[in-house]
Every structure is written in structure tokens, then in C-alpha cells.
Amino acid sequence: MWARxxxxxxxxxGGYVIGFLPxxxxxxxxxxxxxxxxxxxxxxxxLEQSEIxxxxxxxxxxxxxxxxxxxYLIAGxxxxxxxxxxxxxxxxxxxxxxEQQTLSATGAALLEDAERTAHEFRAAxxxxxxxxxxxxxxxxxxxxxxxxxxALSRTLFQLIEHKQQMLDAAYDESRRxxxxxxIWTFALLGTLTSVGLxxxxxxxxxxARAYGQEKQAVAASERALQQRDxxxxxxxxxxxxxxxxxxxxxxxxRRATTGSEVSRHADSIGAVTAGIAELVxxxxxxSTIDAGHLELNVRPLDVAGLLDDLxxxxxxxxxxxxxxxxxxxxxxxxxxxxxxxxxxxxxxxLLGNALKATPSNGSIGVRAEKDGAMVCFxxxxxxxxxxxxxxxxxxxxxxxxxxxxxxxTGLGLFIAKGIVDAHGGRIWNEAAExxxxxxxxxxxxxSGHGAAESELRVAAxxxxxxx
Length: 467
What we know:
By secondary structure, the protein is α+β, with helices and mostly antiparallel strands. It has helices at about 5-75, 80-100, 105-130, 135-255, 260-290, 305-320, 340-355, 410-420; strands spanning about 295-300, 325-330, 335-340, 365-370, 375-380, 425-430, 435-445, 455-460. It is built from eight helices and eight strands. The longest helix has about 120 residues, at about 135-255.
């Protein structure tokens, strides 16, 4: 594929690669750095939040320990004593969890201070719990236990406040990092945009020059095609008169020398002349379709009569090959608005192809039926069908598919499509269990359409030139 590109296209792609590859790499590095910083900040914030949660848990366990101890001193309930033991275990677990964290020097000192104060409080509380019946219990509680409990609460609040300050600092640092990354990202985007504009201006100027050259080449090509079509039209038109003369002379010879060697040669000359005349007509049709000037003599037509005339012509040809020809018309009173000569040309092409493709003892057929505001014609055969790989191209100019050694010009289906498109209908190939099935539509005549009741000259639309 690269080898088929022009040198200009290769230079364009090379310029874009050279210009954008370093910027893309820088953007990828920035994104990777952002991801790394974000992941680190996320881990740090989660760690700080986890330490705050553990500190809160420690303070809560201390409060429950103080409360349960006070309750036991007042009530003496064994249940409250068991709660004291449970809260002591929870306090120890919270201290151990905090010790496993990576604490700052201040945090470690505060935790150590909390452990020491808690040890003193628990020793004093254990002494009071063991001597609950002492007469100076209340005095000792107020003198020894309450100050230690208040000191423990203050120490734990200081630890929590310190951890909150650490979390706030982490958030501030994260905001600063994000701000710096945003600045760097916008700077990189600005650089990328500037380089892109420079490259775009450069290549736009190059493309403008290339477009101008291509436009001139296209104009020259169109002029050449127009001249070619005019030449083909002139040649085809001028060939008709000598061909008609040759056909007439062959007919005269055939009638004058029935059964002789000269008569056989006259038949051969007539057949060759008919083939050349058909090719000339195809060239004229092709020229008018390409130029968008295919004209139609449109009038109401009896579909049943049209099919009768057509099957009468092809019945003998089908019988000669021992092929059954079927004719179906869904409504004997069905009318279309079309050019009779052109519709016969389309049907003749499809039926002729069907006869070529169908072996002896096979069958072909033609059907017409109402389809809303259109009439749908169908032509089918029991031949080998068209290979799937050819189906997307069968209506293209110069498409050929040889059947049984018989060859055509490759223009029949292309011209048929141009004629149908000029009528405002469409033509297509439809999947069939056996053989080939072609359908096409033309407008149906409806009473009250006065414009269709007179002869019209209708120019083919541009769609007639598109396969």
C-alpha cells in the first residue's frame, strides 16, 4: 500500500509523524507521570485516613474503658467488669494497629505518650477495682483516676488532631501537584496545537497546489471523455446506414437464392450485420447514458400485451433449446407509464441472458405484478446462477460472465440499469434457490395522471449513469 502512494502523500505522512511523534511521546510521559503521582497521592491519603480511623478507634476504646470502669466502681456488676476487660483488649489492639503504621516522629511520640498515660490510668483503675470496698474509694477516684482519665483523653485528642493536620497537608500537597500538572499539560497542548497549525498551514498550501493540478487534470479528462463520446456517437450513427444496406442486400440474396450456398452465406452476413448493429446501438445507448441525455417516449402501456409480444418472440428461441418459457401477469388490466421500446430492450436483455444461461430441458420465465405505485417485472431461469463474488459488480460497466462459451459486450445490464433509473425505478438481483432472478420496477399508470396520457420527452437523471 505504501508503494502505491504518491511521493507527496509519503511526505505528508512523514511530516506528520516527525512533527507529532515527539509530542505524542511527551504527552504519554506526562500521562504516565500523572498516573504515578495520582496513585502515590491516593495511597498517602488512604494511609492518613486509615491512621485517623485507628486513632479515633483508640480514643473510643479509651472512653469506653473509663466509662465501664466507673460503672463497675459504682454498681459492682460482674457484667461491667467483663466489659472493662473487653475494652482493655480493644484498646491494646488499636494501639498495636497504630504501631504498625508508618508514623511521623510527632505521631510516634504522641502515640508513645498515649500508651504511657493509658498504662498509668489502667494501673490506677485496677488498684481501685481490686479495693472497691475501701472507705476512701470516692476520694481516691477523684484524686487518682479522674486526672489520669482526663490526661489520657487529652493525649488521644492531640494524636487525632495531629493526624488530621497531616491529612490536610496531604490534601494541600495533592492540590499543588495537580495544579503543576495542569500547567504542564496545557503548555504541552499549546505546543502541540502550534505545531499542528504550522504543519496544517504547510500541507494545506501543498494540498491546494495539488488540488489545482488535479482539477486541471480532471477537466482535461472530462473534455477527452466528452470528445470520445461525441466521436463514438458520430461513428455509431454513421455506421447505421451502411449496416442497413448490408442487411438489406443479404436479405435480397437470401430470397433470391433459397437453399443454395449463396443463401447460407447471406444468412451468415445477416447474422453478423445484426450483431454489429446491436453493438452500435449499445454504443449509442452507452454514450447517451454517460452524457445523462437518455430520452424516453413515455406513454401508458398495456403490460399483458407487452408480455404477449415478448413471449411470442422468445417462444421459438426457447423451443429450439427445449426450454420451457413461462409468462405470468398478475392483473390483465395492469398499465405502466414507460417507453415501450426501452422496456422491451430491458426485458429482452434479461430474457436473452436467461436463455444463454439455461441448459436444455430447463425453464425461464417473466412475471409482472403490482407493487404499490410501481409495477414489478421479474425474469428468472433455472441455469447455474451468478457466482456470489460477481453479484456486487453485475450492473457495472464492462462486467462479463461467460456462460457456456457465449460472450457478450458486458454492457447489457449497465444499459438496462440506466434505462430503469431513467424511468424512476430500480433494478436488482435477488437470491434464488436455483438459477438467477432479476427484478425491476417502473411507475404504474393510475387514472387522473393526465401528464402520463400524452407523449413526454423525459431526460435521464444523473442516477442513470451510476452503476
